[in-house]
Amino acid sequence: MLVAFGTLVVLLVDTIVTGWPGLGTQLITGLPSTVADEAGARPAILATLYLGAVVLLFSVPIGVLTAVYLEEYADRERWWNRVIEVNIQNLAAVPAIVYGILGLAFIVHGIGLGRVVLAGGLILTLVVLPTVVVAAREAIRAVPDSIRQGAFALGATKWQVVWRQVLPAAIPGIATGSILALSRAVGETAPLIMVGAVVYVPFNPTILGQYTALPVQIFNWTKLPDAEFRTLAAAGAIVLLVIVLTMNAVAIFLRNRYRKQW
Amino acid sequence: MRVEFQEELAALEAGFQETGEIVVRSIRGVIDALRTQDVELCDEVIAYDDEIDDRYHGLEKQIELVLARQTPVAGDLRLVLALLHSGHHVERMGDQCVTIAKLTKLSSHLDTRQTVVESLVDMGERCAEMVTESLAAFAARDVSRARGLDALDELVDRANRQVFQEVLGYVNDAEALEWGMRQITAARCFERIGDNAVDIGEQTAFVVTGEFTEFTDASRDVRPLA
Amino acid sequence: MEAPRIDSGRIAEVSRGLERSEVESRKSVFSVRDLSVAYRGKVALEGVDLDVHQNTVTAFIGPSGCGKSTFIRCFNRMNDLIPGAKVDGTVLYHGEDLYARDVDAVEIRRRIGMVFQKPNPFPKSIYDNVAFGPRVLGMKGSLDERVESALRQAALWEEVKDRLKDGALGLSGGQQQRLCIARALAVEPDVILMDEPASALDPISTTRIEDLMHDLKREYTIVIVTHNMQQAARVADMTAFFSVAVEDDGSGRRGILVEYDATTKIFTTPSDKRTEDYVTGRFG
Prior knowledge:
The complex is a heterotrimer.
Chain A: H1 2-19, H2 25-29, H3 42-73, H4 79-93, H5 96-110, H6 117-142, H7 145-153, H8 158-187, H9 190-194, H10 214-223, H11 227-257
Helix pairs in contact in A: 1-11, 3-6, 3-8, 3-10, 4-6, 5-6, 6-8, 7-8, 8-11, 10-11
Chain B: H1 3-36, H2 39-70, H3 74-106, H4 114-140, H5 143-168, H6 174-209
Helix pairs in contact in B: 1-2, 1-3, 1-4, 2-3, 3-6, 4-5, 4-6, 5-6
Chain C: H1 8-13, H2 20-24, E1 28-39, E2 42-53, E3 57-61, H3 68-72, E4 85-93, E5 96-97, H4 105-111, E6 112-115, H5 126-136, H6 143-153, H7 157-160, H8 173-185, E7 191-195, H9 203-216, E8 221-225, H10 229-235, E9 238-246, E10 253-262, H11 263-268, H12 273-279
Parallel strand pairs in C: 3-8, 3-9, 6-7, 7-8
Antiparallel strand pairs in C: 1-2, 1-4, 4-5, 9-10
């Protein structure tokens, strides 16, 4: 435990020290360039944000509705529901690169979307969907059954009970889970490389256009010979860290603020 | 809080008071019948006792239900028990009136003796007074008023002894003696009515203090609970 | 300490619990015949025959496991929500079969409301709690008026009228339960079912709820389950005593209805010895 923690601290300190000089508005607002002094990661940062948006847009509704189905509608006795039950956790543990390969085959080529932001977003959605489902299920389960009973007893239909009582009460848990899932997605590199986040994108990305993401950009900078690029890479890493940590902080804040006392 | 229960208790007590008033009327009825030797009035009093008995049985039944359904405690329980006893005393008073009325009828064909009749009427008046007073003391939960009944009862007892003495003097007159013996019994009935009124006073003290004492010694002090 | 004043005209009026004949002269709201309930094949309650009449309070008493909660949930088909629950026999509601194929369970729950043992207000504002029913049922008319009326009937209006937007979970236990009653009343039901409504409350709140039942029965028909016999004695017009019958071979315990009569009879001269043993506390 101490060793792991210690290693983490060392890495963190090293990154910050290395990247500190690289931090600046140039990094955030500038376009990439072969010239280190002029290079920036704006397209990468924007793409990362777009990817995040796509992930949220798809993973939350699909994840929540799946969780609702599993918790509220599915008959636990049926074998297929038991199969799903067991496998959700497994899916969360599958290495992200496997999703990358799947995505390449079915999304990029299969439906012919191409190597675009939307495709990358969809793949990342697949990566984090199990996590969202699990978090949503936990949040839904945490809603006491007495609430449902009370709503049913008033003459509410199943859907009304879910939509007007269970989900509103589960929102804090769902939000926390979604943001955590999102922060994971934002940090993914491998699947994005698989589905074509390209190296050099000197323009702002669009949803159906070519792109690169911040982790990929960092990865590529480390491969370049110039020492300045290493600094930039470290700086980029700091930015990424900040983004992820901020998301996590928001998630924790939300969880604490809306923690229900039943 | 527990409005229904409070109303039930109030209804019980009101019913008891009403029956008491009816008995007072019966007492006045027999006094009049004695004074005027009115046989029809005697029959009325006798017939009217059914009403008193029915009311008592109704009170009994209601008390049973209140005990079963409301499980009264503390002051409420004492009140219910006191009503049960007092209701019985009132019913007994009714029976005494019936006896007096029957006696009056039985001896109506005989001549009356004024002194004895006056004594009896006097006893009757005092009894009516005592019963009214005992009912009022119960309603007001007034222990000192209840204790005051003891002094009145003493007067009734004195009149009873007077009647007895007077009749003793009729020993030589067979008809007068027959009449006199009946009046002794009637006087005894009045005396019993007085005792029953004192008993109701004792129940009043029980409701207020939670302790039951005979009112023979008025100097014994018991501090009330409320 | 003076005796209370009451005029003699009132004496006849005061109800001492209805006589059986008075109850039976009222319209029958529920008519139960040979009802049995089983959970996944295991019989919980068997052979119940019973009539519940309009504007009365009917209480179900009995030891734990006798099926009284199971039984009350048959009246609003809440047993439908329990997987594996099976109801046999007939339950007629105003003459209509409650379990007929074409009956919408959602519709009947509007007319037959329920209050639970542990107060379960929604994690919303006081107003939204009471308004939930009318909203989901799409009831027309002023919502504000409905909410106020329901809260008044539940004897809670004065205490919360200035803080309707506050969270319901901030109320005390007794207030929360009255809120749940208001919530049920807001949809204008015909019947109110109460499953041990006061068992989680302190004595004063309990008395309040009992006084409330006494008022509510003028407009509604009330059925309550209670494990507190004295409560049934105080509030109910009719009382049904349920008990547990054990199979001779020890194979199963089923709930059965032992005796159903006017409350005054059950608590003064019960017909069945089992009832006598239970109400006198010799068996429980």
